[in-house]
Amino acid sequence: MPGPLVFPAHVALHLLVALLLPPLVPGLIAKVKARMAGRTGPPVLQLYHDLAKLARKEAVFSRTTTWVFLAGPVATVAAGLVASLLVPFGHTPAPVAFEGDAVLFAYLFGLARFLTILSALDTGSSFEGMGAAREAAFSALAEPALFLGFAALAKATASLSLTPMLLSQGLAAGRLTGPLILVLAAWAIVYLAENSRIPVDDPNTHLELTMIHEVMVLDHSGRPLALVLYGASLKLVVLGALLIDPLLPATGRGWLDWLVFLGGLGLLAVAVGLVESATARFRMTKVPQFLVAGVLASAFAFLLLLV
Amino acid sequence: MSPTALLVLRNGQAAPLREVPDLPPAAFREAVLEGVRDGRRLACLCAESDRRLIAVLADDGAGTLHVARTRLDEPRYPSLTPDCPQAHLFERELAEQFGIVPEGHPWFKPVRSHRPWNGAADPWDRPADLPPAVMDFYRVAGDEVHEVAVGPVHAGVIEPGHFRFQCHGETVFHLEIALGYQHRGIERALVGGPHPLTFKMAETAAGDTTIAHAWAHCRVLEGLSGVQVPARADRVRGVALELERMANHVGDLGALSGDVGFLPTAAFCGRIRGDWLNLSAEGCGSRLGRDWLRPGGLRQDLDPLRAERMLPRVGRSWLETRDAVELLWGAASVMIRFDAAGRLDPVQAREIGLVGVAARACGIDRDVRRDHPFGPYGAHPVKVALAQSGNVHSRAWVRWEELAASTAFLSAALEDLAGSPGDPKPDPLPPLAPERLCVALTEGWRGEVLHLGITDTAGRFARYKLVDPSFHNWFGLALALRGEQVSDFPLCNKSFNLSYCGHDL
């Protein structure tokens, strides 16, 4: 590969970014939202402080819970870290790439969601049960949007591995432009839904009855809660990479590619913050329509590539 | 029995107790039902210690209050509620306070969690130390029905209350609200007064409605002692009340915006609410208007210099308020949410005797400031805001229009106050006249606040009744939730924004 970075160095950098960078993203989003509202807002590094604090705290477990209750947070982080190895960060190839890794990528998040839902049900709380039901229903609609997008890119690049799918030169040019825009629009919807952002969910609300994802983790505390928060920020980065990779210009220089990637991630965080500052949340009954719009967009992209 | 047989009073007017017709129980019942049939509103129904019931019917069209009493031979009587749903909570309350059982009440449950004051047998046979909201909740049975219990501890910093939803998936079949956690025993403590703490207790019946309650209390005392308040003091009281309305409405619109996740208005209104509160602080030294009023006048007059200083601040705060709230009306994503949630049927709203913002949002044209004018509102009327849809949007819109109307009132009042000489402090009130009754209504920011005082032979309170608008309106929230999405509950709840402590007293 071109550039001064050799294989072990870029893998090390990839791992470092996946491990250390994620908590910065929610901080950046929160800062943008605060600025848009005329407030100072919490420091950008707030989540690092929160994680450090939670790591020192004792966890409290309800008597009704079993080991399943812990499986959710652990699976979220474990699946997120493995998935982060499969997705290229910018124009640097992913550390692990093989034919079909896109399917593994999608179902790693599926596995994490499955266990999070189980751990929510494990508490026996009616709130958490309600949140689990919502999460299951909405992710069932988000998944086709993600997969049809994969199908479209697989058709365009003749590969089912994320690195070639996302980084093929010429994706953004010619007859592939239209389908690519549709796929990215669909994935943007998936991104907001999967990360429980406005307009689908409100990560800042304190109102249990309106929550989707947040309510499933209400009973977690201490280190398990730190895992949940870290896992959520990891998801912002990993799915974010999926969304911005095809848009990033290839510079041909390793270190510049990394800067471009980090800049792109920052812009994505700002964009999420702007969306959250400008719109209200959808009514819960409207969320499926929003997600179906994503499914239709990526399905149409796939159809365009078939003809 | 014709309703003219009832004693007719004006808002804040006192009358000797012997002039209040003492009807036989059957005639009392008929008089109340007939009054309600004729379009009057049951503003208050309560018991006194010697098995007496007293009812206040408000005729909003004529600006009169109709009062009747009765004495029961036994601690039971046929319930009014089946024929007059407005009596529903009043009857549960008087059963709990005095052990008088309204027989045939369709929803006979405790209101708070205390046993009768007068040592009568508890209608529910509850132990003395029973916590609130321990009772049989209404339940819907079936495989796919689930129950969601919320509170009394909530995720935000709000008052405690318990909500039980019977849901089918995301749809609410029924909501039951159980309060009582904030019960402090105010009404019981006021008996035997006025004593040094009486004013404080009346003022803090609902902390965010300080001025409305303090004013109603002052007017009861002034009525009972026959004192006329100077016009300037009344005008300042009006300023205090409208500032309270501004701060709360601005806070509510911001909170409504926050509940749908629309940040700009939520953030701006949070700050601007502080500006309105600070104007109250400029007026009396307390952001919540504590201790601004005094029976007979004011603790502190708003001298011309301060009125002049406040005037431009009112203008500035209003401009900022307008800018922040107009963002709401311009955001389609917000309007969709507001329009879709929390519709209350106007017919039901009228039947259950809804008051205030929630009533006006259903197109029910009632506002104490116009219908039963008090203080400065006779000479300086305030435009009554109305909306028709009865949903969250209507309740937000009524608040918005009231902001404009209150600002107009404030500007005019402050201008006049700045241009006229200040008043000296009021004289201490003379003692209250014995064996009299006085009913005073004010229009707080939530709605009608009623205080009723009855003095004994020594001129002490034999009974003092407070009715906060929340007492009328909580049931309206439960009705507004029927068939709605459970995820819309917080938004509906905020659009009513009722007081827990005002209800629990």
UniProtKB/TrEMBL annotation, chain A:
Broad class of the protein's primary localization: membrane
Membrane topology: Multi-pass membrane protein
Organism: Geothrix rubra
Key words, A-Z: Membrane, Transmembrane, Transmembrane helix
Compartments (UniProt record): Membrane
Gene: ehrB
Pfam families per record: NADHdh (PF00146)
Protein's name in the database: Hydrogenase
Transmembrane segments: 12-30, 66-90, 102-124, 136-156, 176-193, 225-244, 256-275, 287-306
Cross-referenced InterPro entries: ComplexI_Subunit1 (IPR052561), NADH_UbQ_OxRdtase_su1/FPO (IPR001694)
UniProtKB/TrEMBL annotation, chain B:
Transmembrane segments: none
Keyword flag Plastid: no
Pfam families: Complex1_30kDa, Complex1_49kDa
NADH-quinone oxidoreductase subunit D domain: residues covered: 259-419
Span of domain NADH:ubiquinone oxidoreductase 30kDa subunit: 69-119
Keywords: NAD, Oxidoreductase
The organism's place on the tree of life at top rank: Bacteria
PANTHER family assigned: FORMATE HYDROGENLYASE SUBUNIT 5-RELATED, HYDROGENASE-4 COMPONENT G
Name the record gives this protein: Hydrogenase
Organism: Geothrix rubra
Gene name per UniProt: ehrL
